[in-house]
Amino acid sequence: MAELKESRAAFNPGSAAPTTLCAGCVGHATFDFSQMFSRNILVITAALLCHSIAPPMGLTSELPPPVVAAAGEFRQIGWGLQEPAALPLISTLDTAGMEAVAPLLAAPEMTAAGEAVTIQARQQEKQGETYKLHGDVEIHLRGLIFKADDIVYDASSGEVVATGNVTLDGGPHDEHIAGSRAAYNVKNETGKFYDVTGSTGARFRGRNVTLTTSNPFSFTGKLVEKVSDERYVIHDGTVTSCELPTPKWVFSATTIIVDVGDKAKIYNSTFRLKGVPILYFPYASHPVEKLGRQSGLLTPSFGVSSRKGFIATESLYLRLGRSADATLGGEYWSHRGWAQHGEFRARPSETSFVNMSYFGVLDRGTKGVDQGGEDIKLDAEALLRHDIRAVADLNYLSSFVFRLAFTETFAQAVDSEVKSSAFLSKNYQGFSFNTRMARYQNFQSVSRGDLVTILHVPSFEVSSVERQLGRSPLYWSFDAAAEGVSRREPGFVTDKLVGRLDLNPRLSLPLFLDGWSFRPEIGFRETYYTQGRTPVGGIGSPSKADISRRAVEASLEMRPPVLQRVFDRTLFGRTVKHTVQPRFVYRYANGVDNFNSIIRFDARDILSNTNEIEYGLVNRLYLKRNGCAQPGEVRPNIAPVTPALRGVRSQEKDLPALEPRKRSGQAAEVAEEVVDCGALPDDFITWELGQKYFFDPNFGGAVVNGRRNVLTTTADFTGIAFLTEPRRFSTVISRLRVRTSANTDLQWHIDYDAQKGRINSSTAFVNLRLADFFVGGSHAMLHAPGEIFVSSPIPGPTKFNQFRILAGYGSPNKMGASVAGNVGFDANFGFLQYSALQTAYNWDCCGVSVEYRRFALGSVRNENQFRFAFTLANVGTFGNLKRQERLF
User: Fold this and answer.
1) N or C, which terminus of the chain has less Cβ within 10 Å?
2) Torsion of CA 208, 212, 213, 218, to 10 degrees
3) Which residue has the higher pLDDT, 91 or 831?
4) Can you tell me the distance from the alpha carbon of 130 to that of 137, in angstroms, rounded to the nearest whole number?
5) In terms of Cα–Cα distance, which of 530, 685, 718, 548 is closest to 616?
């Protein structure tokens, strides 16, 4: 401390006389002048002291490595301090015995604003306020680091003239500029750089580069002007998101204005890919930072189709405030006409949103047939006051042939249903109050007007969960509705509004005995309609008389104890457990003696008499790793596993694995090692089997021979219609699922009809993914009763047999190549319904995707499409292959 005080006194202008430094010893020291001068003054210098003082590492670790001073070399130190008294200027040093003299640094120069400018160089000369700096020169100011081989710095004006390996780094957006020479003012941070390579959003530390933003941005230019703190003007340059010096793509332009933290405005630019000019843009913008939404024209896209011809698309994006936007655009099809599309999105609050889309086609027609139309969708939701939930899901389709002809995905193209619904819902203490308006449309064929339309305008519904009846063991619930409904189809039209009132109270008594569970239930149902149906002909005709339906429903559900066994042998190194869960359900309904006089609007109208029993069982095979303990599980002589005990290993190495050890102060014993394998064992295989036996094969006269009959009891059991005549046994349903890991899944659903000796339906799904390889497939086979279309008794197809296969390698963000393909094959007709082949290649800053797609939808659509997408990192996608339509 005494030595440090003595050294401080030597530099104190207020001392009696300056102390001469001895030339025989070398060292570094840091001196604090904050006691004598204005704040923020910090001197970092190489001093020759007679006493060796260890420097603080935080201040001296950034000093450059020592260099050898040549004999007779002159070095000057410009203190740059507004000192009250003159300090000695060391101009000549005795170099004898000083081969390891460290480079000399200038102390901070105070700007007019009171900010420190730190100067560092191997050689420094000072002439008044001008510094001439040579060799590894660095100037630090306001978080900016200015480097060059040689710099002339005027401390009074802040002007810097730099030559040789000029770089500028720092700032709030981590700006980096490298050039051959520069004229720069460190006070107002403006200047010119020549032969520039630069970037933002990347921090350079030697050869290491750290990205500090999600939108790194690089640029080059013959001349770059920094005109303000965050604006650069690039002349005769390029911008890109790729890594320099060999970017995959660039925008080259004569003038580029870069607003750091915002975007780059590019005027009269040419987009070049691998140096090859592709497109000319009179104006374009490139985000420099990850920005919010901004209005503007989107990148145009092009494509080719055998039916549409050449396709050109352009769109306008509008930012409508902080929480809303819209996209409006159009497509030109050289063979067919024009298409319009639009989308509106809004989030008025955290608990509400509105999405609306429009797609329409002005079709010139093919072979004299106009297939144009509109498809409009509205999806909205809001949480209103008093916890009232409002939801709207509205869809409008002008014609089914329009969807078949112009929808871009196969699943949407073949979907013949259009559903719209809007409701208000309030849940309160187990009660649910709802009001609803809905429209359901099912297009029966491509002929205009051949569709079924069912309306619910309006509907009021009240229901409750099961609630205990006082202190008794009984539980009660109910469901009630008052609705206005209507139905329209070729040959059958009801009144514009048919009134329907429905009331269904229920009472149940859950019982448990030695692992057995019993649940008897009884209910009553009263339904009133202001209009009925006269069952004549194929679909009947509406009547003018009102009609009532009364029914008594009763059921008894019985579940025996679960049969289970844990096997001694392991499978895949895991313990195997098998469980069997039987169930029996008896149902009885009576009083529906006018089933064929009820108009079908929805599931409320297909209730019929029944006297049946359902029996089935569920087999489950569980796999569990050996040594696993579940949270809360208690083992013999082992304490319950808690998060604090998971992974605890006994310190006594002589104890065998999993042998319990006694801990002082604990009543229970803890396993030597506890392996936490998750909350539950793996559900390896699940197989459900079920069937119904009908004591009343005619269902109280509801069954019509030779027709497809859909009743509540059959629809709840299987979604496949099988009832075409009176029968005792239902089909046997089989539901199998095998899941070996998170990357594999197999499901197989079968409905087997023993009475007809055939499989009515079989649906199988298989998905497998191994690293970047994936494969999936499905098979759907159906034997269905004939369905009548339009007013004439024309039977529809009764047999369907279709395959879907998807296979590929890669993922959307995978570097390098990816490829995938899918096909849809109709085995009945022996042709491909659709197929697609996609390939993609991703570089570090861009990617390209190409697709061939084919549709074969009968006489309506036979089309080949070629689509592509070119994606620029942090810019956008150019092309007509949408991300949601990609196969990988």
Assistant:
1) N
2) -40
3) 831
4) 15
5) 718
